[in-house]
Each structure stands twice: as structure tokens, then as C-alpha cells.
Amino acid sequence: MDWREKLFGKVLVKSGQSGQLENVATMEALVDCVEEGEGAVCGIYFSFANISDESDDFGVRLEEVYNKVHPRLKVVQVVLWAHVGTPEGPVEREAGFHRSLIGKPWFAVPFHDVDTKRRLTQKYSIAVGVPTLVIRGRAVRDALLADPLGERFPWPAPPLQEVLRGVQLQGDGHTKLYEELPPDSVRVFYFAAHWCPPCRAFAPSLCSALAAVRKRRAKYANTQLILVSSDRSEQSYNRTVQSVSSVDALAVPWSAVEARLALPSALGVAGIPALVLTSPTGSVLTVNGRTHLAADPLGLSAVEARLALPLALGVAGIPALVLTSPTGSVLTVNGRTHLAADPLGLSAVEARLALPSALGVAGIPALVLTSPTGSVLLTVNGRMHLAADPLGLVS
């Protein structure tokens, strides 16, 4: 499947001249967009239907820049709803969705495509109530607002090493330059603030997971947590630093304002809490560290997970075939047996439809007797034999 359909599905919508929404095939809408390299860029605009332009004019500023850089920029809008004591129901929300798109020159994910909206929101860690634009995996809200003429479009990320060059990261009683970190250390950038309740709730699980990773794998013993604070006062900043002090975290200093403001753009962060993992050279390994942490709170590596899976799935030997549901519930540990019995992969429904033909049954009720292996057809006239010999007496 093409990357555009993987992101947005097969159909987008757009406001027509009459104000009605029209369906447009995703591949047609984004035909000249490229995932990497030279060509039109696809931007994903996350907006909130119950936040007016007067409260946050990002949508207005985006449209101004869009008109300057189009057709180099194609936009797909994802209309969300900020749940801040809003009593509106589905009808009101769909009306808000339509209002958000009237007169807009770009496309949008359909109102009822909730799965795509949820997946995109989670993929890019979108903060509730903060409209933003994501380009090639990076949030560029701040970069766009700082460049109203679009002169630096598509706002490439500043190199991480440049942002942190010469910055004395602060630890518990010591400081260290970013370039002095061990050359084999994975860097875990934690974006947080004390005023953010989810950040305060997330910090303990983050510290536990990081401690587990360092203990379990010598390869990751030097993994370094680096705090990037969004606090509004130095007092709050110090509290955030304290929340991760148990794992010897380093923090971008309160005084290094330029670096603290540049890092979210450099690493594609749109909201907090956020967890971004990079290699020692600055390559981003994942911007969805929180999602990975939630899925693997013990910090199991691929090797450890491979060792743990047989026990978790009840496997005693190999070869073995275990089927699970999407939620992880075990459907069967006897996949090999089922495969041998059903090599064509017939489902229960398909098997039910195929059996009459396989056993020569033309109508119902019918009673067919076979050998235990199913290979020998004993009789298709079971009803007749039962009527003649109801007690099952052999002659």
C-alpha cells in the first residue's frame, strides 16, 4: 500500500464551491507529494473544532503561509475536539467539523473516520487543544509562526548537535557537555513541565523503566536521560528536575533558553509529556517513546522478549505455532495441529459450506459416518441405518 493511503486511508474530503464536502481519492489529492526528497510536501494539520480563531489563530497563520508556498505544500486537516467541559453530542460535533472546513483550500480526513484520526493523533503525540502542523514526522508549529512569509519552508530541523553544542547539561552536583556523553549511549530526551499533570504521573514509570533497561542490558548501561523543561518559572523547573533525579538525569539548564526552545523543533515534539530516543550521532530512533514505554514497561529488549515469549504463550518445544487475538489473548497453542487438519486455511464458515460437497450430501437432515481419520467414507445413509438399527447393534 502506498504511504499516502497508509497514513490517511483511501478517501479524503474537501469543501466544494457550494460549501458541501466532496470526497476525493487520497492518491488523487496527494498525487504530487513525495515522502522524502524533492517534490511537494504533505503537511498534517491537527485542529480543534471547538477552539475559535480568536483563541488560537494558528489556522489563520497556516492558511496565509499555505497561500505563499502552495503548490509545494499540500495539507490534510485532522479535525479533533478539545474535551474541556464540552456537552456537545455527535450532531454538534459533525456541524463543527463542517464549519472548520468551509472555504479551506486543502483536504481533510472524513468526520466518521475515527480510527485514522486516533492513529494519527497517537503517532504524532498531539497535545489536546494545541493546533499544530506536522511535516515529515516533525511538528513545525513554532517554526511556521516564526516564519510568516514561508521563506524557510519546509522548516528543516536544526541539527541536534548544533542546538546543544557548548550547553552544560546539569546533573546532580555536576555538569557535562552534550558532546562529552559516552559515544555508545542512547539519549532519551524527556520533554516535561511541573505544571503538566500527565508529566508528573509519567515520571515515576519512566524512571522505573530506564533503571530496568540499564540493569538488564549491559549494552544500554550508559543510556542517558536528558530533561528538556517547558516550565514557566525556575522554581517549577527545579521540581521537574527533581522528579527524574533518581536515574541521574541531565537537564538542559534553565538559563539555556535558546536551546530549550529549539529542541522541540529539532526533535519534532508538539506537546508534553514526550519522549524521544536518539542514537549517539543524533539520529532519531523514535519520537513515540511514551507509546513504547506503555507497551513495554519493563524495558524488555527484542532478545529478552524472544526469551520471555515461550513462557508467556505456553510453548514447551519447537516447532510450535500459537495464534492470538489482536489484544494478545491466546486463541490456540495447537496451531500445528489445526494447520495439518486444515491446510487450505478454511475458516469455520467456509468449512461448513464445503462439507456437504466433500461428503456427498444433497439435502438435510443427513447423517454421514466416516473413519476416525476422515479418509474413509463409511456411509452417507446414516439416517437409514439408524432407523433400521436404533440400538446400534451390529449384524
Secondary structure blueprint with pairings:
Layout: H1 3-8, E1 11-15, E2 21-25, H2 26-29, E3 41-48, H3 58-69, E4 73-80, H4 90-101, E5 107-108, H5 114-123, E6 132-135, E7 138-139, H6 141-145, H7 160-164, E8 168-170, E9 175-177, E10 187-192, H8 197-216, E11 224-229, H9 234-243, E12 250-251, H10 257-267, E13 274-278, E14 284-286, H11 289-295, H12 302-313, E15 323-324, E16 330-332, H13 335-341, H14 348-359, E17 369-370, E18 377-379, H15 382-388
Parallel strand pairs: 3-4, 4-5, 10-11, 11-12
Antiparallel strand pairs: 1-2, 3-6, 6-7, 8-9, 10-13, 13-14, 15-16, 17-18
CATH topology tier name of the largest domain? Glutaredoxin
Strand content: 15-25%
Q: Any idea how many domains?
A: 4
Biggest sheet record: 5 strands, mixed
Mean pLDDT: 84
Distinct helical segment count: 15
What is the CATH architecture term of the largest domain? Answer: 3-Layer(aba) Sandwich
Radius of gyration (Å)? 29 Å
Low-pLDDT ranges: none
Principal-axes geometry comes out as extended
Based on helices, strands and strand pairing, what is the structural class? alpha/beta
Describe what this molecule looks like in 3D:
- The chain is of the alpha/beta class.
- It has 4 domains: 143 residues, 3-Layer(aba) Sandwich (Glutaredoxin), CATH 3.40.30.10; 136 residues, Glutaredoxin; 39 residues, no CATH class; 47 residues, no CATH class.
- The chain contains 15 helices and 18 strands.
- The strands form 6 sheets. A 5-stranded mixed sheet has the order 5-4-3-6-7, with helices on both faces. A 5-stranded mixed sheet has the order 12-11-10-13-14, with helices on both faces.
- Helix 8 links the parallel strand 10 and strand 11.
